[in-house]
Write a structure and sequence with these properties.
Order of helices and strands: EHEEEHE
CATH architecture: 3-Layer(aba) Sandwich
Helix content: 10-25%
CATH topology: Glutaredoxin
Structural class: alpha+beta
Number of domains: 1
Distance between the termini: 38 Å
Bound molecules: FE2/S2 (inorganic) cluster
Length: 119
């Protein structure tokens, strides 16, 4: 088997990573899973398959994105746009506006401060 260089053009036009990380309820930073992230991320996967048509879209479940206080959170590449969301209606809006039409959903944007990232 030939593995190649490991470098390609982006495989996906839109690549979404949804945090579904779970922590104990006593953890000081909380977690996205405790706020329903897994159900909403799975909903996004199903809806993306049904609505993205010919666009090459990938929705991945992710571990902690290190912006827990905003959670649930996602980041969308290739631009590196960060969102927080609360419910399926927010997911629908992100799918319709950002994933399908390439327009940002201003009201759900977050801007992580690299200087304040927890380790
Ligand atoms: S637990 Fe979701 S960003 Fe950390």
């Amino acid at each position: 088997m030939k593995y190649g260089s490991g470098v390609t053009e982006p495989l996906y036009e839109v690549h979404v990573f949804c945090c579904v990380n779970q922590r104990p309820s006593t953890h000081r930073r909380g977690c996205c899973a405790s706020k329903g992230a897994l159900n909403m991320a799975n909903y996004m996967c199903r809806r993306a398959m049904a609505t993205a048509n010919s666009k090459r879209v990938r929705i991945n479940l992710a571990g902690c994105l290190n912006v827990c206080e905003y959670g649930p959170t996602m980041v969308i590449y290739p631009e590196g746009v960060w969102y927080r969301y609360d419910n399926d209606a927010d997911i629908e809006e992100i799918l319709e506006q950002h994933v399908i039409h390439g327009r940002r959903v201003e009201r759900l944007l977050i801007t992580p401060d690299p200087a304040r990232l927890h380790r």
